[in-house]
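Hi there, hope your week has been kind to you so far. It would help a lot if you went through both lines with me. No rush at all, and the record is pasted right below:

***
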Amino acid sequence: MSDAASDIFTALAHPTRRQILQDLKDGEMAAGEIAARFTASGPTISRHLGVLRQAGLISERRDANRILYSLVGERLALSVGDFLSTVCPEQIVLREVRKRRTAPRGSDTIAEA
């Protein structure tokens, strides 16, 4: 598994980080709002946010003195989807079916001279 995939699965391994991702699915949240949802200390939540950010699953932006976090859902979907397609035969079949449906007509035939 690539280092990026390892970072993602490490980030997903902890229930607090999975909950943070679920909380961010509805939109951007300030660090304080996220921390208020947990009984863990602020520094602990900050470390969890750092792990998620390092894995590329969340992004941050500053707004004055606040740090706002948002979900990078496509990274999560692509990484988990890629992993599943390598280990789950049904996913491999579904991926191939999707490729065929979205391929332009005639793309799988040899062009005539």
The chain is about 60% helix and 10% strand. The helical segments are 3-12, 15-24, 31-36, 42-54, 73-87, 89-102.
